[in-house]
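# nightly structure sweep
# worker-07 picked up a monomer target from the shared queue
# config: single-sequence mode, recycle default, output format = structure tokens
# input follows
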Amino acid sequence: MRMQKKGRGFISAALVTLIASASPAHAASDPAIYGLVPAEKSLETSSQFILVDDFNTGKFLIREGAGWRVKGPLGALEIMIDKTDARNPERGYSLKNDFSLASSEKASFETSLDHMDVSKATHLVFKIKLAMKDKAAFPGKLAVTLMDWNQKQAEVDLSPRVAAADGSWIEVELPIGDFSGLDPDQLTRLKFTLTAPDSKKMHGALWLDEIAFFGPGNAEFLSHRDNIVSFPSGMSSERRHKLAKQKKDAKFLKMIAEDTWKFFENARDKNTHLIVDHIRLGDAPLIADYTSPTNIAMDLLSTIAAMDLEILSREQAADSVGKVLKTLDRLPKYKGFFYNFYDIAKLSIQRSYISTVDSGWLAIALVVVRQAFPEYKEQASKFLDGFHFGDFLDPENNQLVVGLDVPMKDFGKYHYGLLVTEARATSLYAIGKGDLPREHWWFIYRTLPQVWGWQKQKPAGDFITEDGVEYFQGYYQQDGKKFVPSWGGSLFEFLMPTLVLKERKLAPQGLGLNDKIATELQRDYALKKGYPVWGMSPCAVSNGRQWTYREYGVPGLGAKGYPDAGVVTPHVSFLALDSLPQDALKNIRNLLKFDIYGEYGFYDAIDLKKGRVNPQYLSLDQGMILVAIANYLKEGTIQNRFHADPVGKKAEDLLSKESFFKT
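# output follows
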């Protein structure tokens, strides 16, 4: 469900053209800047650089899919990756530009900056070398242009710098102030333009390398920090020790909820009130500048959960929800649906993609909002009326597609084909609303077809007919227990829907029973492996300054099976309060034996094999923790609101129709 958005240094762009502008400026140089990082290491290893491109992939792309684009007369400029590096001649690459311009001709090459925030950077730096074909001095003009989210451009003339170029690398340092009039909170494009003189042709080659923004300290982190309400003051474990001494379970969970709410209170944009996707503490602190529909859903649900737990007053909760709804009304949409990533400050679209399941969770949260706050019923319903999930139903198999690439009008080839995924809550909601027919529920696989031999095991079971649809009610077996598998074997897939669905109560022989069995099997698997704690699901793991959202699970509990890498995430134990509460509480307490708790509650993951905690908070996982606590302490308070709504009432009988393990 959760797609990791490309981080800074990962630039996504399509082939576009742009007409160059011109204005005079100057350049300066400080050879000491690049000396801060050893030549054999990437600039990314230093917190003082926000890397644009060092070309060291050796490909004509910037890491995960972007490229450089050319504008100019045919044949005027040809760009390529060259096995020449400005900092480490033994390894690495640069961008080479062969130019051949008639008199007065102009050609440019550019890349997207993906709404980069460089508000705390002081300079744009890069290395450049230029060689004329006739070995003469450079006769033309070379300029660099930055563009911001408002389409404003500012240009600096590099010609004085390269006028006497002799084919050697030159280090260029341009103060950000030279690009006057731009909003450094969100830069969108970087462009270099070559212009031939009025009366002379111009032939030669230009190399570019090590392009970055430079600033003091942690330039990227500081650039984002001033956008949010607050950031944790440190990584103190004092609260962890107090929790460990608290013997009363209710008080214990309430204390965790109070700390977890601090994330939603502080990790949001000061002006738009949108929650960030994630923050991280430690040696490489970071703050995301984007959010998603699921993050917004978790924010709304968590605000209501905090109200129910009396962490917030009703007035405070209503005010917070109202601010989010007001911002939602301003966000650009596609046929009523919200895009999957928005910049939290400028509200611009960060990726033109509609995710079916992320849209589903936002819809579900809006249902709960209109039950919690009648004053927002009309506004929430307006958003809900704009969604039509029938647009994402594949008529060939009656299953939901994963999403839509809007520019390409491409629904892709993948579906939410299994019932035991986080997407089943979306299906139930869409049936209850009337967007999808009831029979859609029975077209979702319980197990994959028996003939698909690549799955983890051949399922047993029988064919059953419901609502006129014949389907295979299959199951797997492990350790003498029958269960309906998920795709990857993560508890996230089994249990996330229980945040809003009363599966334990309404499906005691179906999904509710399966949730319990899957939790038991996850617990037992970890004990057999010798792990001191359990809970394998997708989570954030780190490696130095980089981080990745990866999928983990118990392989045998999935049709495909995610890997077990010894990584455990705390949010699983809180979801398990619904399926196996006493074991979940014991596991939560055992987790506190590790240094995995900070100012905003549990960090996202611990690598048991490496003994390494990732001190990161994800809004998705924080939301699951807080909502699960509210449901446990307040007798299903969030679940009750969803099922009290006409949407929840209309489809809930589908939950009780199945007995998974009929004999």
